Amino acid sequence: MRGVRQESADQGFVDNMFWAKAFRTRYDIVVAICDEKLLDKELDWKKLKIKVSKGFYGEKLISEAIAVKLMGKATVGNLFGKEIVGIAKKNGFITKENIILIDDIPHAQFVRL
Length: 113
Prior knowledge:
Elements: E1 6-8, E2 12-14, E3 17-24, E4 29-35, E5 42-45, E6 48-51, H1 54-57, E7 60-63, H2 64-73, E8 76-80, H3 82-90, E9 99-102, E10 105-111
Parallel strand pairs: 4-8
Antiparallel strand pairs: 1-2, 3-4, 3-7, 5-6, 8-10, 9-10
């Protein structure tokens, strides 16, 4: 199942799908989530090329509701994209101070102790 797409009165259909991968380390549950359209994109940041890789983010296509559940279980989060970073901020996983722009794309990380 690809998830749920929601209809917005002013925009038609809104794409609320995200690529995500979750894994355990010795001490943490790490979740990496990016906006669907960013997977495999290469971005410029300072003198670096940053790739939003399928190997890191692209395990499963998920809905917004599942993304929020995954972030709620994670001790470490790595987020890429306007939509997922906005959702994380709205749900209290990050604050605006956690957000940086890489090639004009919001990126944030969080650690929960």
